[in-house]
Amino acid sequence: MNRFIAAFIALYSVSASAQDTNLHEYLIEGESWKPAATGFDFTDGLCCDEAGNLFFTDVKSGEGIYKIDVESGKTSLALKDLPGISGLQIGPDGRFYACQNKMQRVIAITPEGEVEELLAGIKCNDLVVTKAGCVYVTETPTKQIHLITPEKKHIIADEGSVNRPNGITVSPDERTLIVSDHGGKHVWAWQIADDGTLSAAAPFMTMWLPVGKEEAQGDGATTEKAGRFFVTTALGVQIFDQAGRLSGIIAKPVADGKVVSAEFAGKNHDLLFVAAGDTIYSRKLKVSGYFGQ
Amino acid sequence: MKPAILCLSLALAITSPLLGGPQDDIYTLGPDSQPRADVPQGKVTQMPPWENSKIFPGTTRDWWIYVPAQYDASKPTAVMVFCDGAGFVKPDGSFRAPTVFDNLIHSGEMPVTIGIFIQPGSFPNADAKSKAKPRSNRSFEYDSLSDLYARFLLEEILPAVSKDYNLTTDPDMRAICGNSSGGICAFTVAWERPDEFRKVVSHIGSFTNIRGGHVYPALVRKAEKKPLRVFLQDGSNDLDNQFGNWPLANQDMAASLKYAGYDYKFILGQGTHNPKHGGSMFPDTLRWLWRSEK
Prior knowledge:
The structure holds two protein chains of two kinds. By secondary structure, chain A is mainly beta. Chain A is built from one helix and 24 strands. In chain A, strand 15 and strand 16 (about 185-190) form a beta hairpin. In chain B, helix 6 (about 180-190) links the parallel strand 7 and strand 8 (about 200-205). Classes of the chains: A mainly beta, B alpha/beta.
């Protein structure tokens, strides 16, 4: 019995250990979610540029690609006549890469608005573009991950591993691709070969489930500079460390609302933005994003 | 990305047992952990990296085999597997398992036993020149509550070793040992396959919620008792973090094993998340683990 008491006393004298990668390491006390843009229908497709501007779409009723200016914080329509985009990122060539879900195609768009169709006839959901120029696209209903190589060759990179493949991102060394399952509890990981093809599919990370549910509703995903993955889910933004361990859950801006997309932006890329229905929210973190830096 | 920071944080996350505190200094190795001139030494062989795992596709891992001097190919031989094997097989490490085996096999305090020391898998970088650290599969392999790691041993490693050595198939003569996540992995292997592995040694075991392992105390209480022998060690200054509290979790495990009537032993010292305490008592742990009386 004495041993147990001794253990208790010792416990409370122990400070945070080197293994901690918990919420305290990236949340700032007193800095909570703030609305950044509102008045939309269903915001999605968050991405950033190098300067820290945030871009997003309104899948249901948007006219194109919207921008939250890094300096003024004002929202404007950056590119029009591009409705129904659900996934968006700026590629190494400076073009937007987009899942134009409504038109069932993957496109690239120059800053001036010139559109190139990369892949048609695809119920695309979300995408990520690597520095090597490989475009990976999730197609939720077919359980497929598509790869469009820099030579514009189309490869079905995975089929059937993920029940409802949705959010997608890469590790900072761009050797690991991860995809969240909207219809399960895992975030899957693959190795990326030199030619961009995928191997070693594994349910590397496990999302926390809402009580009584079997689906975590894994959705948009992004990467922190140090290699943690931020994945939007039914419970909030779930964070996984480099070892694939769930290390924290950031609460949703609206308790009974949704978060479907996440990205770091702002001057130092330390503002985490989320798409939460009609509103984009942001909050300042102690850590910064991988993309655009 | 700053690779140096990434590497450092990975190293801290994975190898932090190596960073001890002053509370660990009281734990030192005794005479049973030192080579003796009058004791025949077994042979440690580093095997070619295990690269074609079907259970953990895409991974590579280092591993070693220890074969005692007393090994007799005509007799089925006991087996002990070590998770994070590199640390256990190291001649100047905290455990020096080959030396302890030599001494205890010689004195008849443990059976002639082949040691298999296995590192966790990692995914090699496609670009050999890349300085980025390969992604570690350790947490996935060790912290997951599933039969995958047991199957990896039973379908891949043991058949490979059996090609060259006469290994027992008696589950009572098969043991598995690990530290931290390797500790819960050792328990999971026996818990999932008590028909194959029945002896468990866990030091500073992660019976916490890294990937759901905190449920074991509850499961042990409600599940039909399994024929396992379980040794647990922890320190009162072990981790308290987002995954849980190690000393409490190990006390909870011990209380559950006691409640359910298991053949178990629990030693709670004062150490941190460090292998020194487990290493210092390792010869006695093996004596207890391999004792013939019930």
